[in-house]
Design goal:
The protein has helices at about 5, 10-20, 30-40, 45-55, 80-85, and strands at about 70, 75. α3 packs antiparallel against α4 and α4 packs across α5 (about 80-85). By secondary structure, it is mainly α. The longest helix has 12 residues, at about 30-40. A two-stranded antiparallel ribbon has the order 1-2. It has one domain (about 5-85). Helices cover about 50% and strands about 5% of the residues. The protein is elongated.
């Protein structure tokens, strides 16, 4: 191991590396990954922007049916945003 490998990385370096490789994560939705990457690159990676970006990226075809989402402890949530906030 050389001295460079032993250095502690800054938070920015860790995040930059993560986002540079986000599309290579197994099973990740590429649309969501690209949304998160763009928010990070633009300096707009906030909770509200992430929720809004993901919500705008995902499309559910319910064919006239409703969907009930559950949050922590199986508590019913009234909206997609509420449920996402419980996950994030």
């Amino acid at each position: 191991m050389n001295a460079k490998e032993n250095m502690v990385k800054t938070g920015k370096v860790v995040l930059d590396t993560f986002f540079q490789n986000i599309n290579s994560i197994a099973g990740i939705d590429t649309k969501i990954a690209n949304t998160l990457l763009e928010l990070y690159k633009e300096g707009k990676f906030t909770e509200n922007n992430v929720v809004r970006g993901i919500r705008n990226t995902i499309n559910f075809s319910l064919n006239g049916k409703s969907m009930l989402l559950y949050g922590e402890n199986a508590s019913g949530k009234s909206s997609f945003t509420d449920s996402y906030l419980m996950v994030i």
